[in-house]
User: What shape does this take?
Amino acid sequence: GERLGQAQKSYDGAVNKLSGGSGNLVRQVEMLKAMGAATAKTIPQNLLDVAEANDAEALLQLEQQGGEEGDDAASKTIR
Assistant: This one.
């Protein structure tokens, strides 16, 4: 059971590296394909879904940070 848990942890880490964070590998490949790069294989849909979810989450966090910074800037200007 312990080895199975270690294998799952390793797999989750690898998936996170490929599809997590801004500019992740999955997103970069999809952008290259959109620009016309030819590929012999396709990325599994589950990785595309994870990457898309991570991109949406990162965008939401950036928007929230931008709104908070904007509020701070406005309050400093008014004072």
